[in-house]
Write a structure and sequence with these properties.
Strand content: 15-25%
Number of helices: 10
Distance between the termini: 45 Å
Largest sheet: 8 strands, mixed
């Protein structure tokens, strides 16, 4: 092993130290087998693979937390004396040489298995897991041996590592030039923007997940945010009408600022963040032996240095980074086209890790974990391998086929002549955010009951221009009826909608009353408004051509464009791909 604790110890490959224990059914890393891996020829412990040298420089906040597996364990007086008599190795617990007396030790029988002298890093199915992570990157294997690799940032939000509810993780890829070989990337004078941002939502029952990409060039309002500095807590002023990527690294903003910006944008509460740099793509793609990607045409991109012929390829290292950074040679040449490349890369790498034996191959798992944790920065809520492992174990059951990769819907900025930024498409984004908050899969998990009659027959929706409706405010915020009319007419072309003022009575829930001959109109309006089936009140008699339907906004109404009930499928036109789709090709 070299002086930084990375690589080999003598001629011993760290992965070759893994031994299968038939009693436990798990692989074990034996670091002190006599005259074998983990010992020098004298029998004394050698450096543990993956640990940093005791004299080496550390990165920010690499302190051991109480309760971490890698931290010190309670010692007897003899053990404390022994610790003082030998040089300390960061992250290792004290060991007792075989020749030393065992005076004062209990004679109680130990449980069958490994002795205390045998230092083992136990690797079982429940303690090694997969996390989807960053910058066109993918899964992170976490286990206790790499605790010192992890950077953490206190963003002023304290959440437990795991939860019984849904989990929302903000995945950040920064374009900072840190790391070997990255001098030519990103902004020379920047500490790193939010170059790639993915909001990963994992359902409460862990049956499905949504990875929602947020365009870096979207115009947003960045709120004020507290940051922790050497001088204490300071508040960084926000910025209205700024590019989203300026929420990180600019004016002293840390990941907590991006965290708060995303929460304000989507209304979705975030549990944790994970951030990595350019090296994560290069090292992780190499650790898994390459990631399969596909391009529908020959590409020779001068800016990203990507050069691929039409068809499928396995990319790793610099080629992998070039792939996720390419935009000028695909699609419309925008960041939105680049996002599609990153989603293809993410899903492919996720499948690669899950299916190629990375989790059961000790050497590959070792390399992957070392690359991942070395590139990883997280919040203090998951700022140790023990906490990360708990989170990973909780989320590991999600299958690639149940992951949907999507992009926040946007429109060209109407205030620009030369289009360089985009703005949120509220009509499509709002129901999308509501689906995530309601824990619904973007792939669609339920039949669209709003558009079916009692016999299950699909109802054909009427054109929006034919929808005739009177709107009353029966419990919504002041001005809700007029706000809804304006939204229907201006955003959706429902010209025959009318503000009828306040309803004669207050209602708890929004209702839509219509005649037996207005089912097609009701289906269209219910789809636009996100109405539940229970909100539809069909009369037994026909209404006729000139009689409008009656929509009464109840106390459950929040705002025009916000669905009363989250839809069961993503709005038309929302870009998305399935995590198990192997035929996606960049055009």
């Amino acid at each position: 092993m070299d002086t930084h604790g990375r690589g080999r110890s003598g001629d011993v490959d760290p992965a070759d130290q893994w031994v299968f224990d038939p009693e436990t059914g798990s692989y074990e890393l034996r670091l002190n087998a006599p005259d074998g891996p983990g010992h020098d020829h004298t029998g004394s412990p050698s450096a543990v693979p993956g640990q940093r040298n005791a004299t080496g420089g550390g990165r920010r906040r690499r302190d051991t937390e109480p309760g971490d597996i890698s931290g010190p364990s309670p010692k007897s007086g003899d053990e404390e004396s022994e610790d003082r008599s030998r040089a300390a190795v960061p992250g290792q617990r004290s060991r007792r040489r075989a020749a030393e007396p065992q005076a004062g030790r209990s004679r109680r029988k130990r449980k069958p298995g490994l002795s205390r002298k045998q230092k083992v890093l136990r690797w079982g199915g429940g303690s090694l897991a997969l996390l989807l992570v960053v910058l066109g990157t993918t899964g992170y294997l976490v286990y206790q041996h790499f605790n010192n690799n992890i950077d953490k940032v206190d963003v002023g939000i304290k959440n437990d590592a795991t939860t019984d509810g849904p989990v929302n993780i903000l995945i950040l890829g920064t374009d900072a030039r840190s790391g070997k070989g990255n001098d030519g990337y990103g902004d020379r004078d920047s500490k790193g923007h939010a170059d790639t941002t993915v909001l990963l939502h994992v359902a409460k029952d862990r049956s499905h997940a949504t990875a929602l990409s947020i365009p870096r060039d979207m115009v947003v309002d960045i709120p004020d945010c507290p940051t922790q500095t050497d001088e204490g807590e300071q508040t960084v002023p926000g910025s209205r009408g700024a590019r989203f990527n300026e929420s990180l690294g600019q004016n002293g903003r840390d990941p907590g600022c991006t965290w708060r910006t995303v929460e304000e944008l989507t209304g979705i509460k975030i549990n944790h963040f994970m951030m990595a740099d350019f090296n994560a793509v290069k090292e992780l793609s190499t650790a898994v032996g390459g990631v399969e990607v596909c391009v529908a045409k020959d590409i020779d991109d001068k800016k990203s240095k990507l050069k691929l012929t039409k068809g499928k390829h396995k990319v790793q290292g610099e080629d992998a980074l070039a792939f996720v950074r390419t935009r000028g040679s695909v699609g419309l040449g925008s960041d939105l086209s680049r996002i599609e490349l990153q989603q293809q890369f993410l899903s492919s790498m996720f499948r690669e890790v899950k299916s190629s034996g990375s989790l059961s191959n000790p050497k590959k798992a070792w390399n992957l974990a070392n690359a991942a944790t070395d590139a990883l920065t997280v919040d203090t809520g998951i700022g140790s391998v023990k906490k990360l492992a708990a989170l990973a174990s909780d989320l590991q059951s999600v299958s690639p086929k149940n992951i949907t990769f999507a992009t926040v819907p946007v429109l060209d900025n109407p205030n620009e002549t030369v289009k360089s930024t985009v703005v949120l498409d509220h009509a499509k984004a709002t129901p999308l955010f509501e689906m995530i908050k309601a824990d619904k899969s973007l792939a669609g998990t339920k039949k669209d009951e709003n558009q079916s009659d009692k016999k299950g027959k699909q109802i054909e929706k009427a054109p929006k221009s034919e929808v005739r409706v009177d709107i009353y405010n029966g419990g919504g915020p002041i001005g809700s009826a007029q706000q809804t009319v304006s939204w229907l007419q201006n955003d959706h072309g429902v010209r025959l909608s009318t503000n009828s003022g306040n309803a004669p009575a207050q209602l708890d829930t929004t209702t839509l009353e219509f005649g037996s001959d207005q089912e097609a109109q009701a289906a269209t309006l219910a789809d636009l408004m996100g109405l539940a089936k229970s909100a539809l009140k069909k009369k037994s008699s026909p209404a006729g051509d000139s009689v409008p339907m009656t929509l009464t906004l109840g106390a459950d109404f929040k705002a025009a464009g916000t669905p009363i009930e989250a839809p069961d499928k993503a709005p038309d036109g929302v870009q998305n791909i399935n995590g198990d789709d192997k035929d996606v090709c960049a055009k």
